[in-house]
Design a protein that fits this description.
Largest sheet of chain A: 5 strands, parallel
Pfam families (chains A, B): Hydrolase (PF00702)
GO molecular function, one term (chains A, B): hydrolase activity
Number of strands of chain A: 7
Shape of chain A: elongated
Structural class of chain A: alpha/beta
InterPro entries (chains A, B): HAD-like_sf (IPR036412), HAD_sf (IPR023214), PGP-like_dom2 (IPR023198), S-2-haloacid_dehalogenase (IPR051540)
Oligomer: homodimer
Keywords (chains A, B): Hydrolase
Organism (chains A, B): Marinomonas profundi
Number of helices of chain A: 9
Helix content of chain A: 40-55%
CATH architecture of the largest domain in chain A: 3-Layer(aba) Sandwich
């Protein structure tokens, strides 16, 4: 199967861990949280219980820092059988505010890539998480103006992508999604018949990981540093997408 | 100044406390929260401190149940100087989950009003709050299909309305917003030169209240029960908007 990059007119970028660092902020907060609970339980136990509570709570709270914070609080209460103190929970609240005000650190070459693509392609951001938090990060990123449209969704399903394409009158054959998460940015986009370019991030939240690699039917780029390769690829009349670019 | 209702082609409805009951859920949760803290402080003190924390936290957490829950937890910790127990905070977490799964109770005549307007007008929902929570309420409301477009925003500013109108190629003179909050649904819409119809709800969150009524330049309807009056009003060639309909 080959896909044609020559047809691409719209390029949508995931935001967290594609345009800017994000997972590191969660990893750091999680480490602080584990330190807080070390007097009660060992690291692995805390880590795995937090992961369970988080996944269970996605249906209630969705993605984002507020839901993550509520899950940390719930985990702390459960793992201490209610013995956690108000002051310790106060520290978790402080972690949340710290996460929300973390500086937005663009990944290497993002600004350069966007400048190169602007004018040639219609550029979108498609991101999931808390509305206010994602808007605030975009505003602080300094790159919001480079995009024609910003779409913040609660979950990146095939259906969510289809609705976005429909809303903006984009044909699947003209659409490319670029992102770090196979589960959110790549597989649902391939499912609707559009194209996707995977740029792995050095760490990906376990929940976002896909273990079935038998369907490796998307191209991959090591990082946005490789802008020349991205641009080359976009100009190719057709591309064998079984083969990773790098 | 008169406005012409005859030009209206698009009608946007606020959701919380316009299409379905919402503030009651917050009031109930707040009462439970106050009961929880009564062993530490008197009712008025808890109530006013929670309101302060909530307003202060809007910049971090935005509108919605998750932010409200984090504010309840923060208030509980502050007012007990950290003496609140893990089990008591667990009760606050349970309040949150209870709020999130509350049944969506449509206000009287909503379904009838929407049926009467459908086909004649382009119908939108414009609501603010948590993305997942608002989507979930719309899905559970049973009326989502009656709307052409759903817009969930982090804050209802004049700028937010302007962006929505621009995105959907709606001219201000053809746009009517219907809602219960002067601050969110009426004043910013009048500011951009569009029209707004106020349907007060029996209780409005203090933060949403506007005290400067000197600019009463919008029509008001006692409830959506008055559908005939709404439809009559929409068919009038011009309307003196200094005068409330009811």
């Amino acid at each position: 199967m080959t896909i044609s990059a020559a047809n691409i007119q719209t390029i949508a970028f995931d935001a967290d861990d594609t345009l800017w660092r994000n997972e590191d902020i969660f990893i750091h907060a999680q480490d602080e949280f584990i330190n807080l609970l070390l007097p009660y339980h060992d690291e692995n136990y805390v880590r795995s219980h937090l992961a369970e509570v988080q996944i269970e709570n996605l249906q209630h709270f969705g993605y984002g820092i507020k839901g993550f914070t509520l899950s940390m609080i719930e985990t702390a209460i459960e793992l201490t059988e209610g013995r956690i103190t108000g002051s310790e929970i106060h520290e978790i609240m402080q972690l949340a505010k710290c996460m929300l005000s973390s500086p937005v650190e663009l990944l290497p070459n993002v600004a350069k890539v966007l400048s190169a693509l602007q004018g040639e392609y219609r550029l979108l951001v498609i991101t999931k998480g808390d509305l206010l938090d994602q808007e605030s990060k975009l505003a602080r990123s300094g790159i919001a103006d480079q995009f024609d449209t910003i779409e913040i969704v609660s979950n990146k399903t095939a259906d969510a992508y289809q609705q976005i394409l429909q809303r903006h009158a984009i044909f699947v054959e003209n659409f490319l999604m670029v992102g770090n998460s196979l589960k959110s940015d790549i597989l649902p986009v391939l499912d609707i018949g559009a194209q996707a370019l995977h740029i792995p991030y050095h760490s990906t939240w376990e929940h976002e990981q896909v273990t079935d690699y038998t369907l490796l039917r998307y191209p991959q780029l090591a990082s946005l540093r490789d802008i020349e390769q991205l641009l080359d690829w976009l100009q190719q009349p057709s591309f064998d997408n079984h083969k990773a670019i790098l």
